[in-house]
Amino acid sequence: MGDSLAVLLAELREDEALALVRGSLEGGADPLSLVEELRQGMTEVGRRFEAGEYFLSELIMSAEIFKEAVEIIGPHLQGGSGADKGSIVLGTVKGDIHDIGKNIVSTLLRCEGYEVHDLGVDVEPAAFVRKLEETGARLLALSGLLTLAFDSMKETVAAVAEAGLRERVRVILGGGPVNERVVEYAGADAFGEDAAQAVRLANRYLGA
Ligand code: B12
After folding, report:
1. Which residue's C-alpha comes closest to atom 28 of ligand 1?
2. Region 86-94: what's the mean pLDDT?
3. Nearest to residue 99, comparing CAs of 82, 121, 115?
4. Mean pLDDT of all residues in the chain?
5. Whose Cα sits closest to atom 79 in ligand 1?
């Protein structure tokens, strides 16, 4: 047997990783398990970066391979439950451009039947508020991986409150370093450690 998808991604072996993704899908592999393997590969990339074995160029390279792989997997995930369980506004907060985890969250929520309004990265608090007003969504999901994202999360929750929407809108947080203390600091409702938890929280708050 060859190396696993997680190993191929961590070692930045792009062609082999993408070939394995295609081959696995053709062989009937569960697309979600492939996403999970990719996530494990990214965790290893992060570890190597922190250990000084990888530099920014390797981070960028790994992110590109990850995105290409998810593009191949995406169509196999779609269709989902076909249900319409409600709207969610999602984005990576101001000052932060990490979006790999957010995109996984978005994909899984869509598969579960939610209509996800993904505003992308580096999103200003006012843009979140506008989208909540426009869509009537009752759930706001904020992603952030940088420590400075905590302040942006706090500002975003404050802007939602200022617009008079806080009663209606639940706010959930996620991204590498987010924990219960960040929830308290930002004035949010809950956080999730992975995309599956994002789905559980959405089901809890939107009553599905
Ligand atoms: C890939 C990566 C990048 C890529 C991002 C590409 C992209 N399109 O996203 C690039 C190369 C661009 C990048 C840039 C930078 N990065 Co960077 N990056 C990473 C790395 C290696 C992996 C992140 C990742 O994608 N993980 C995989 C995903 C799947 O995990 P995840 O995001 O946590 O998401 C999961 C959960 O958290 C959860 N989740 C995510 N969002 C949400 C939301 C909700 C609501 C819920 C419920 C759940 C949820 O579900 C996801 C799926 O399971 C991390 C290291 C690490 N170990 O995390 C550093 C890291 C985050 N980066 C870091 C830094 C410092 C930077 C830069 C400032 C570097 C620089 N000097 O320029 C810039 C930041 C620029 C900016 N303004 O944002 C630091 C942050 C340190 C800190 N505490 O602030 C880290 C921790 C590396 C380190 N140890 O130094 N980075």
Report:
1. 101
2. 97
3. 121
4. 93
5. 146
Atom of ligand 1 nearest to the CA of 192: 47
- Select 5-77's CATH number: 1.10.730.10, 1.10.1240.10, 3.50.50.60, 3.10.450.350: 1.10.1240.10
- Decide whether any atom of ligand 1 lies within 6 Å of the 101 Cβ: yes
Say how far apart CA 157 and CA 183 lie, in whole Å: 10
Using CB atoms within 10 A of its CB, is residue 84 exposed (0-12), middle (13-18) or buried (19+)?
exposed
Could you tell me how far CA 155 lies from the centroid of its own chain? Answer: 20
Per-residue pLDDT tens for 22-42? Answer: 999 999 999 888 988 998 999
Ligand 1 centre and the CA of 8: distance in Å?
Answer: 19
Ligand 1 atom nearest 50 alpha carbon: 89
Smallest Cα–Cα separation from 38: which of 82, 81, 101, 118? 101
Kindly give the distance from the C-alpha atom of residue 175 to the centroid of ligand 1, in angstroms, as a whole number.
Answer: 7
Who wins on pLDDT, 21 or 196? 21
The fold of 87-205 is Rossmann fold (3.40.50)
Which residue's CA lies nearest to atom 84 of ligand 1?
Answer: 146
Whether residue 139 contacts residue 86, with contact meaning beta carbons closer than 8 Å, is answered with yes
Which residue's alpha carbon is nearest to atom 7 within ligand 1? 98
Q: Write down the pTM of the prediction.
A: 0.89
Domain extents for the chain?
5-77, 87-205
Average pLDDT over residues 170-178: 95
pLDDT at 79: 55
Distance (angstroms) between ligand 1 centre and the Cα of 145 equals 5
